[in-house]
Amino acid sequence: MTASAPSAAARPAALQHWLHSATVQRLAVFACMLLYAVAPVPDFWITQLNYIALYSLVILGLVLLTGIGGLTSFGQAAFVGIGAYSSAYLSVSMGWSPWLTVFAGLFITTLSALVVGWITLRMSGHYLPLATIAWGLSLYYLMGNVDALGKYDGIQGVPALMLGGWDVSQGRSFFVLAWGLVLLAAFGLLNLLDSRSGRAIRAMRSSVLMAEAMGVNTLRHKIGIFVLAALLASVSGWLFAHFQRTVNPSPFGLRMGIEYLFMAVLGGVGFVWGALGGAVLTKLLEDQLQVLLPKLLGTSGSYEVIVFGVVLVLVLKYLPDGMWSLVGRFLPGPARVPDWSHAPALAVRSKPAAGASVLEVQDLRKQFGGLTAVKDVSFSIQAGQIVGLIGPNGAGKSTTFNLVSGVLGLTSGTVRFRGETISGLPAREIARRGMGRTFQHVKMIPELTVLENVALGAQLRGRKGALASMLRLDRTEEQSLLREAARQLERIGMGHALFEQAGNLAMGPQRLMEIARALCSDPSLLLLDEPAAGLRHQEKQALAGVLRQLRAEGMSILLVEHDMGLVMDVTDRIVVMEFGTRLMEGTPAEVQQSPLVRAAYLGVEH
Ligand code: ADP
Ligand code: MG
Q1: 564-600 residue pLDDT tens
Q2: Which of 371, 401, 410, 527 to mutate to test the pocket of ligand 1 (most atoms within 8 A of CB)?
């Protein structure tokens, strides 16, 4: 009798765990969708939701591209057009099966998105929105002027989507097909966002410099999300062509491109469910306004566009996270019970032998226009040493850091890391070779947890890409990465804060988090830029303890720091910079006694 008691008590817990599992929740959402399709809902509402499904696919792409990746596109309607026209043309004029034309559409979409993306995404910020406007306009006029595509009349008589004698391109069967695809895309997207690739995309939005220093190829990721968003739009276009049974250029113009963005921003472009809610809200609002406004104003016209414009301005001003910020905060956060007990530990790289040369900097020089920020600076670091880099503000310490870690291109000089010349390599290649760094001004992903931010540091120790993440084939590796992040956070005394939102941390813990993130890359050399700035006395002492412990484990550290107590306490040697030059180099005791250094700091003539 007593033996059965624990299992009886365990059952509700197991049931609860089961109900909380994401798979079960998602299956439940699918089941609700199927139930809705067979329930006695008026056909009008099925039709409305069919249109909303078509918008939703496009909007999911915008969540990834704009909400998460920070890239704005007004040209998504053009990609919808490519999907729609490819399928319409190939099935009407060439007699292809509509089940094949979808792939042709995806292929053409991929090619065009690669070309548009490749040209524009290497340029900074505002070129993409402008380029997507140009792209949307030119494709619209192309569709409207090509004879084979029926000019502005378009293509009529697009065949239905038949599945074994069943027409799935209308009514309730279309509802199941379209919403099935929307849900698959939404869940795939949620999986992607909660993965190694997702962290890379979010990091890129926060700071390209930081993402590159963590080993992320930001151009590749930008092009990747641009193509993925275009593919979702293309699928929507394919569905649209066979749902409407006719295509013409007007639904694929710039106005619709803007409207997609409007729906996403209204709902909350950074949130999958928020953005989809935006599509529902816009469609309902549009229907109401189309009836109401002409009555109120006494004339007919598309006045709802004006209302949308005003609403958009208000939302951007007062609810930058969209309507979702009104709803989302009341929903329980995802139950975070990461279980990494079975995850294998990550592989570690071979470390330099004690005393071996780790870093040799020779005649490093950096010019910003007329200003020479770093003038022919040389120094070196041996394995197991902590070298301090000090000097007054503006001396060129951070610039030296950025030159060594590849964040800035150098004007002249060489940097050798573990015997290999690395000057001229991009930051992510230098990171790959085992150089970890922090930033003077903390760069993180504020909306993610401390644990996830630190796991970003282990980016280069994982392999799984976006597709594996979407299909959830990355879980073992993901648990290993999170486990490593937790280990580094515990090492640095932040084991209690794993699941706190990084943006809510005070300055001190944020800096410690950056150190843990750098340690996650399994570095042989750690570059710390003012790690003690903003730390309280006790935190500084804990930091000094961590630095000594790292050195004892064979780590080499280059430390830029203003807190002289800390620098004198932990460093083996110190390089002093002033006006971009190396003023002197020596042991802490030598530096402390140097009249040159005192003069530099106190501004006394020497
Ligand atoms: P430190 O870290 O020692 O305080 P920095 O390396 O940040 O000094 O700056 C050295 C000098 O280079 C300063 O005069 C600074 O204004 C200048 N500088 C730094 N970054 C840039 C930049 N991106 N463009 C132009 N000047 C810069
Ligand atoms: Mg600095």
Answers
A1: 999 999 999 999 999 999 999 999 999 888 888 888 7
A2: 371
* Residues 34-54: tens digit of each pLDDT: 999 999 999 999 999 999 999
Q: Is 366 in the pocket of ligand 1 (CB under 6 A)?
A: no
Torsion angles phi and psi, residue 309, rounded to 5: -60, -45
**pTM for the whole structure:** 0.91
CA of 549 to the centre of ligand 2 (A): 25
71 Cα to the center of ligand 1, angstroms: 29
Contact status, residue 599 vs residue 606, Cβ threshold 8 Å: yes
Taking alpha carbons only, the member of 248, 59, 64 closest to residue 155 is 248
- Which ligand sits closest to the CA of 369? 1
**Residue 209: nearest ligand to its CA?**
1
State the Cα–Cα distance between residues 278 and 270, nearest whole angstrom.
Answer: 12
**Ligand 1 atom nearest 577 alpha carbon:** 3
Mean pLDDT, to the nearest integer, of 436-463? 95
Alpha helices in 433-535 (DSSP H): 450-455, 466-470, 475-491, 507-519
Q: Which domains does the chain have, with CATH numbers?
A: 44-252 (no CATH), 355-434+523-606 (3.40.50.300), 445-520 (no CATH)
